[in-house]
Every structure is written in C-alpha cells, then in structure tokens.
Design goal:
Structural class: alpha/beta
Strand order of the largest sheet: 8-9-11-10-14-18-15-16
CATH topology of the largest domain: Aminopeptidase
Helix content: 25-40%
Largest sheet: 8 strands, mixed
CATH superfamily of the largest domain: Zn peptidases
Bound molecules: ligand BES, manganese (II) ion, zinc ion
Shape: elongated
Number of domains: 2
Radius of gyration: 24 Å
C-alpha cells in the first residue's frame, strides 16, 4: 500500500471525508453533500452511521461528482480526537475498500488535523492493508486487494511527508514482525530466520550471528539444551543501531524466538499445537522494532538480540530431570521441557547484559499460557525492578494502543523456583502464579540492572479475531513494535 500526501482539493479515486459525532459534517463532507445534491445527508439519514469513531459509510456512484464513491468516516467527538482515532479512521477506510475494486482513495484530512495526525492516519491505513497471501496460489480475483494507493490531503504537505518518514518506518516494522510470526515453522526455522535477520543490514543495522560452536564455548547450556532435539542449529542474532551519541550506553531489547515449541519430551497436547509457530513473537517484536528504529533513523543507541531455537522431542532431546549449567554459572533443574523460553532467555540475557552494559533491558516473550488466564488477549503483563520503566511503558502502551499491566515480583515468589537439586528449577509451584514464577526465573539472569520482562503470550497471536480494530487484520499481530517505538521516542532520543 502506497501512502501519499497532497494539498487540499486533490481528488484521485474514491473520496473519503470525515463526519463528527451526531452527524456533524466536516468541511469536506459538507462540500460533497452540496456537490451531490444532498446525497451525503440522505445516506446518513438512511443508515445507522452517526460519525462515531471507527464507523464508515459508503456511497457508491453518487451523481454530481466524478469520484466513483464517497466513504464517510467517523471521527467521534471533535475535542476528543486523538491520534489513535485518526489511525483507526485510516484503517477503517482501507478495510472498507481493500478488495472492493477501487484502486485509490483520497482521505480528506486537510483542515481536520495537523501533519502528525495526517501521518498517523497513514499508519492506520498501512496496518489495515497488511496481507499474508504468499502461500495462497488460488485466490480469486475478487479476493485480491485492489486498493493500492491512499492519498491523504494535508494543510502542510511537506510537514506531513516528514512526519510520514517516521511513522511509515513504524508500519514497516510492524509488517515485518507480523510476517515472521505468520510464517510456518518449516519455512522460518532458526537457520532461515538468522539469514533473514542478516538481510536487515541493508537498512543500516549492524548484524552479528552466534552459532552453536560459539555458544558452546560461551557455556550457554541452558539455551543449547532446548535446541538439542531439533534438526536445525540454534542461533543468536544481534542487531545494532547506533543513532545516538558515540559511547552512550545502549538500550537492550531481548526476544524469545522459538520458531516452533512442541513442548519437547513434555509434549504439548495436539489441539492447536500449530499456534506454537508464533512462539517467536517476542523476537518478532524486537526485529520489527529494530527495523523501525533504523527506518526512521532514531537518535538512540539500541541493541536487539534474539535467541532462535526449535523445541522438539527426539532421541537426543533434553529430558525432564536434566540439570544444566547456564552461562552465568547458575545450575537449572529441568522439570518440564515445555518451560523452554526462560531457558533460552537465561543465556541470552546474561550474555547481552554482560557484553553490552546497557542502560536498561527489556525482554519480550510468549512465555506463559498463564498470561492469557491473568490478562486475556488485549493487554500484556510487565514485570520489572524499575518503577520508572513501569510508568514509562504504561504510558507508551496507552498512547500506542498496546496496553500493559504491571504484575509483582518479590521474595514470596522467588521461593516458587527453589529446588533441592540445583540452584533453581525451570517451573513454579503447580498452577500458582505461573507468569510471575517465570519472570522470577528471568530475574536471576539480569544482574540487578534496570530490566523489564513483557509476557506477550496473550497478545502476539490471534490478532485477526479482534474485529473491533481494523488496524489488526493479521494472526501474527506484531505486538510490541508500537509500544516500544513510543517508549524510545518519548524518553531516549535527543
Ligand atoms: N510458549 C509457551 C507459552 C504459551 C502458551 C504462549 C500459549 C502462547 C500461548 C511456553 O513455552 C510454555 O509452554 N509454557 C508453559 C510453562 C509451564 C510448563 C510451566 C505453560 O505456560 O504451560
Ligand atoms: Mn513451551
Ligand atoms: Zn514456548
């Protein structure tokens, strides 16, 4: 989907115009009403469209104007119109027209918002246009997208283009995160995933891949144990963006990248096991964020690091009862081979905090099914030793519509991962506080630096089920790119 910006008065393709709550027409909508002899008002009267945020109404082949159709979009109450409302409006118009035969639409936003708002409508349009069609060889013509261009009119076109240079990069990041999450696990395995990340060098990122021989040298037996039943070699990929002052300590983003999680010898039940192709959602968010930061040339030093592993049952697979020594030297008793994400992150976290001496660490992982039980699929859980990070992430989540909620850590939960046989064990106390004991496990590997774990088991997958939000047409949601981009923008750039 191409997003372009043009001056007021431009009219290519379908024309989309805003209506506020209680049928209050924007200037553009009023203009169209006059030109069509009142067709706009008549259509509104004949329907349940009232201008509420997110609503749309299509008027096909109106007389009096050249355009093949008018799409009215609601912006809700004028004084409550946030960037989020504009994103959803751009998305709703695209959703309406995407496969309908129209090839272009002009979104009349001049006079309604500033350059930043125009760009945010563009972001919404891009997010709604996402498709995962690459394995659909028999799509019928009317199932294929027809809409190729969205033109957004703005008062100051140059300023809108400049704002888009930044928000378009965020859209690129979300799309990439969705793509890797959606890809099947035979296509995206640790080896092909690492290759794909190497390709990100073209965007100005410095890439480094760590292979199993090197991990063995480093003593990463927690991570290696998880991958030892797989035919694919485990990899760690590092993405470095140096947009900030030279020598300034970087922000560190760490992602769980299980390209498939069968559970291993503690095999998962068969129903919906295919969904564990999305168990690399944390790494997808990190990869997408790094793409966004590089794309918009963010003024920050950031490192992304992801552990890419496949968890499979095999004659050589890890067993329940095994005790492994992590890179940190701490020993871990494996009591369930399906609690593998924390084992991968243990070594990646330790290695990265030790090597990069970051200002702060944020890890993302589809870590526990218990997260879905606690917070459902609209909000991710955060677990942190820093009140400042908690506050900043909460605000960034609210502003980006990727909301989070803080859960506790502490001595009462540290007990849940104690064992007589090793330093710690990889599961908690039965069904009690499963997401928290997993976070406590990770805490053992961050060495008291400012750190936050985000459990995205509920939010990384199943996105197309959220029908209320037209920005989310994809199973792999790309969750995490927008909140983290916002977090970086608001606090860590000069
Ligand atoms: N990848 C899963 C968690 C998960 C479940 C993510 C559902 C998304 C949707 C993780 O590796 C896992 O299997 N966790 C176990 C931990 C348990 C064995 C302590 C779980 O949540 O059941
Ligand atoms: Mn698992
Ligand atoms: Zn997993």
């Amino acid at each position: 989907m191409k997003i372009e910006f043009a001056a007021a008065g431009t009219a290519t393709g379908a024309i989309a115009a805003a209506v506020y709550d209680n049928d209050a027409l924007s200037d553009a909508a009023a203009e169209l009403d006059t030109a069509t002899g009142g067709a706009v008002q008549r259509a509104i009267s004949a329907s349940r469209f009232t201008g509420k945020a997110g609503q749309t109404l299509e008027i096909v082949a109106p007389s009096g104007i050249d355009a093949s159709r008018i799409v009215l979009f609601g912006l809700g109450e004028k004084d409550k119109r946030t960037a989020s409302v504009l994103e959803k409006a751009g998305a709703a118009v695209v959703q309406k027209l995407l496969t309908g035969g129209e090839t272009a639409v002009t979104l009349r936003l001049d006079g309604e918002t500033d350059a930043e708002g125009a760009a945010r409508a563009g972001l919404g349009a891009r997010l709604a246009a996402y498709r995962y069609d690459q394995f659909r060889t028999k799509l019928k013509d009317d199932q294929k997208p027809s809409l190729a261009t969205v033109i957004i009119t703005a008062g100051d076109v140059d300023a809108a283009k400049a704002a888009w240079a930044s928000w378009g990069a965020v859209a690129d990041g979300v799309d990439l995160a969705r793509d890797v999450t959606n890809l099947p696990p035979n296509v995206l395995n640790p080896e092909t995933y690492a290759k794909k990340i190497e390709g990100m060098a073209e965007h100005g990122l410095e890439i480094e891949i760590i292979d199993e021989a090197k991990m063995m040298e480093l003593g990463m037996h927690a991570l290696l144990g998880v991958g030892q039943g797989s035919e694919f070699e485990s990899k760690i990929a590092i993405m470095k963006w140096s947009g900030g002052p030279e020598g300034e300590a970087p922000l560190l983003f760490v992602g769980k990248g299980l390209t498939f999680d069968s559970g291993g010898i503690s095999l998962k039940p068969g129903a919906n096991m295919d969904e564990m192709r999305g168990d690399m959602g944390g790494s997808a968010a990190v990869v997408g964020l790094m793409r966004a930061l590089a794309g918009r040339k963010a003024g920050v030093n950031a490192i992304g690091i992801v552990g890419l592993v496949e968890n499979m049952p095999d004659g050589n697979a890890q067993r329940p009862g095994d005790i492994v020594t992590s890179m940190s030297g701490q020993t871990i008793e494996i009591l369930n081979t399906d609690a593998e994400g924390r084992l991968v992150l243990a070594d990646v976290l330790w290695y990265a905090q030790d090597r990069f001496k970051p200002k702060l660490i944020i890890d993302l992982a589809t870590l526990t099914g218990a997260m879905l039980i606690a917070l459902g699929n609209t909000r991710a859980g955060i677990f942190t030793n820093s009140d400042e990070i908690a506050e900043r992430l909460f605000a960034a989540g609210t502003d980006s519509d990727e909301p989070v909620w803080r859960l506790p850590l502490g001595p009462d939960y540290e007990k849940h991962i104690e064992t007589k046989n090793a330093d710690i064990r990889n599961i908690g106390e039965g069904r009690l506080a499963g997401s928290i004991s997993a976070a406590e496990f990770l805490k053992c590997f961050v060495n008291d630096r400012p750190w936050c774990h985000i459990d995205i088991a509920g939010t990384a997958m199943g996105g197309m089920n959220s029908k209320e939000d037209p920005r989310q047409p994809s199973w792999g949601t790309g969750w995490g790119v927008r909140i983290l981009d916002r977090f970086v923008r608001d606090h860590y750039e000069a």
